[in-house]
Amino acid sequence: MRLTVLAAVSVMATASACSSSKPCAGVGVTSQIGVMFLQRGYTDLAGASYELCAAGSCGKGHLEQEDTTRISLRLPDDTGPDLGPVRFRVTPKGSNHPEINASADVKLTRQSDGCGGGAYSEGLAFTKEDGLTTKIPPSVSAAWRKHLKSLASPSESS
Predict the structure, then answer these.
(1) For residue range 122-142, what is the model confidence (pLDDT) as tens digits?
(2) In sequence order, which residues have a C-beta less than 8 Å from that of residue 39 and are 6 or more positions away?
(3) Quick one: average pLDDT of 67-81?
(4) Main-chain phi, psi angles of 11, to 5 degrees
(5) Per-residue pLDDT at 111 exceeds 90
(6) Alpha-carbon distance 69 to 67, whole Å?
(7) Averaging pLDDT over each range in 23-32, 76-85, 145-154, which range is the top one?
(8) Which are the contacts of 107, defined by CB distance < 8 A and separation ≥ 6?
(9) Rounded to whole angstroms, how far apart are CA atoms 72 and 52?
(10) What does the pLDDT look like over 22-45, one tens digit per residue?
(11) Cα separations (Å) of 13 from 17, 18, 19, 52?
(12) Which pTM does this prediction carry?
């Protein structure tokens, strides 16, 4: 009987040490940059390769034919606010010369994880008219909302 009581007390102490009255998100906060790319003004970028580089890391992939594309690059966990230059390059399929080769100096914004930690990130936009910028133009925000709405209800995409 005494062993059972001690075991129950031990389990309760362990359980109470792990619980907290304050919720702690702590999930999904990563250092990264993202580019919203408005393809308007370019012809046939389907299959074009892209490269997004910052802090010695590069993300590569291929574009689909769509109005708006979101590209992201995860950065090392120890990334601080002073990221420096970000480069965005798009090379059409079958070409060796980039059609887009843009860069911008970027300062990152800290996002808390709610547990005393956090990460640095920033959103950018690229349009033919404005180039690569940290100031998201209203046209890019509107195009992205339209894109998300079309994914949610494909029959209402017009």
Answers:
(1) 999 999 999 999 988 888 888
(2) 45, 63, 65, 66, 67, 68, 69
(3) 89
(4) -65, -45
(5) no
(6) 7
(7) 76-85
(8) 81, 82, 83, 122, 134
(9) 8
(10) 566 556 688 899 999 988 888 889
(11) 6, 9, 10, 49
(12) 0.74
Cα separation of 55 and 115, whole Å?
26
Q: DSSP labels for 53-100?
A: EETTEEEEEE--S-SEEEEEEE--TT--SEEEEEEEEEE-TT-SS-SE
Tell how strand 100-107 and strand 82-91 pair up.
Answer: antiparallel
Rounded-to-integer distance, Cα 14 and Cα 36, Å: 46
Q: What does the block give as tokens for 118?
A: 């956090």
pLDDT above 90: residue 99: yes
Reduced to 3 states (helix: H, G, I; strand: E, B; else coil), residue 9 is: helix
Confidence of residue 112 (pLDDT cuts 50, 70, 90): confident
| Burial (0-12, 13-18, 19+ Cβ within 10 Å), 111 | middle
Structure tokens at 158: 């017009």
Distance CA 85, CA 89 (A): 13
Backbone angles phi, psi at 114, to 5 degrees: 80, 5
∠ CA 14-16-22, nearest 5°, is: 135
Quick one: average pLDDT of 106-114? 87
